[in-house]
Amino acid sequence: MRETFGKACTALRNWLLAPFEKEFPFFVLLLVICSLFDITQFLQNHNYLYTIYVVALFYLLAYGISLIVCLFPKGIIRNILKIAVIVPLVIQFIIELYCKTTLSTKFSKDFAGAILGTNKNEALEFLQSFVGPVSIIYTLGPILILLFLYAIFHRIKFRLTRALSHLALIFAIISLFLFIKNPSVWCDTIIERVAWYFKIQSPPDLHEYLTHPNLTIEKSAAPQTLTIIFGESFARSHSSLYNYEKETNPKIEQFLQSGNLFVFSDITSVATLTVPSFKNMMSTYKTEYGESPQWYTYTSILEVMHLAGYYETWISNQSKTGFHDNMIGKYADLCDTCAFVGNKFVGTARCNLDGEVSKLAKNIVKHHDKEFYVFHLMGSHPGFFQRYPKSFGHFKAQDYADKPENQRQTLAEYDNSVLYNDSVVSEIIKLFKERDAIVVYLSDHGMDIFNSRPDYAAHGQMENPISRKYGTEIPFMIYTSPLYKEKHPEMVERIKANQNRKFRTDDLIYTIMDIAGCDFEDGSVKKYSLLRMGE
């Protein structure tokens, strides 16, 4: 009996020491990949006490995972398990390093949601706009070095001595007690961030979350046709309507000169990415509300417009679904008619131009008693050169001789995409010029086009004040048809009076409701509408 107990104790001890004596290279690789990025961040913040807890937890995690791996005999099963553990951590490490070194931002749940919410084409376009030799070296370099060192350690069968293994085991036990004392440090682990992808839910059917709000409706105030055009990645600083040096909006400017277009000077988006921007723009939800309750439980523009008696049509050049089901497509499903250019879903290799949206709209736009249209364009989404036909390659690299050489081609391509967007938006507006119609145009977010860094042209970085400024400053304009101006002079005067009002697009629903002549029972439209301040 005593001999059996002794053997059991020896076997247990050998197993507890196995990560240091049998799988030490794997243990070290796991520990470094898990902890290197985070510990560096905490040390930069000079939060040394919390860093101790984090170091201890990462050590405990690496030890625990290695311990589980050592339960299996050497061979193919153990190797498969090691790969299954390392690969997702390496991918996440690369993503976070990429965010830090190339995007100069911190990985977040919104970023994870954007990855899952996009489609293959958009993901590839996004990467193409950032990936270069420098970013590859910064991102893949550390991983390749770690894997090279692991291979060497594994080949020479580097192990800890029995004495050092006992010290390492003691530290693992101490780490366990430190984690029990402060379990909140788990939230700062890379393993928890990998788990975000699995915790992010696919957007539900929004029909199941209608709120059935009670509205007050003034029918005489409502236009026959109300349209929203959502642009994409349009930086206000590159619009000639806002005094940009290049003439990027010549056709829309004609509406301005005729007195039918009103340009707003101080409008910002709530985010620098499409998904979080739409979560805020399409309903009464605001980012500061958090996730309890979820964004899809709030009253949407589409539900309100349906209750106000509008026939709703959604026409889009963006994908309806993504890797994790596109939440914007769920809003589109609430409409009476929903059309996507080329039936563009996940996995297609097509790159449709926005001009196809206006062509499609000509066959869809019909005369109902009351009509509400939503257009969703690709606009100036990266990569910029794919957003316009060759005939719109008006701007050339040599037109930017006063800019650094590395910026000239990108600036030309971006401005050409804005110029083409100007043409498309003009064509859409013309569809409604003979009606009692009002058209609202805005972009989901802006862009940082070499504003914060001489080598950076992409989505704004929320952690960088300069980049955030340009990444959230957007063009916002309202077109009123001649017939609308004749029938609704009071609203036109309110539009004029509020052109310089500071406004954030998470209150867009209240402005649309104001134009449609409806309000919630609590009168919140009168409080939050862009068009009420000048009264």
Structure description:
With 535 residues, the protein is an alpha/beta fold. The chain folds into two domains: 2-199, no CATH class; 206-528, Alkaline Phosphatase, subunit A (3-Layer(aba) Sandwich), CATH 3.40.720. The chain contains 20 helices and 13 strands. It has helices at 2-21, 24-44, 48-69, 76-101, 109-117, 120-130, 133-155, 162-181, 190-199, 250-257, 274-281, 301-307, 327-332, 355-364, 405-430, 465-472, 482-487, 489-497, 508-515, 524-528, and strands spanning 215-217, 225-231, 261-264, 267-268, 311-316, 337-340, 371-376, 437-443, 448-449, 457-458, 476-480, 503-504, 518-520. The protein has a seven-stranded mixed sheet, sandwiched between helices. Strands 1-13 form a two-stranded antiparallel ribbon. A hairpin with a 7-residue loop joins strand 9 and strand 10. Helix 1 (2-21) crosses helix 2 (24-44). Mean pLDDT is 86; it is low at 344-350.
Quickly list its features.
7-stranded mixed sheet; 10% strand; Alkaline Phosphatase, subunit A; single chain; alpha/beta; 20 helices
Radius of gyration: 28 Å
CATH architecture of the largest domain: 3-Layer(aba) Sandwich
| Beginning-to-end CA distance, first to last residue | 92 Å
Give the overall shape. Answer: elongated
What does this entry show, briefly?
With 535 residues, this protein is of the alpha/beta class. It contains 20 helices and 13 strands. β9 (448-449) and β10 (457-458) form a beta hairpin.
Please write out the topology.
Layout: H1 2-21, H2 24-44, H3 48-69, H4 76-101, H5 109-117, H6 120-130, H7 133-155, H8 162-181, H9 190-199, E1 215-217, E2 225-231, H10 250-257, E3 261-264, E4 267-268, H11 274-281, H12 301-307, E5 311-316, H13 327-332, E6 337-340, H14 355-364, E7 371-376, H15 405-430, E8 437-443, E9 448-449, E10 457-458, H16 465-472, E11 476-480, H17 482-487, H18 489-497, E12 503-504, H19 508-515, E13 518-520, H20 524-528
Helix pairs in contact: 1-2, 1-8, 2-3, 2-4, 2-7, 3-8, 4-7, 4-9, 14-15
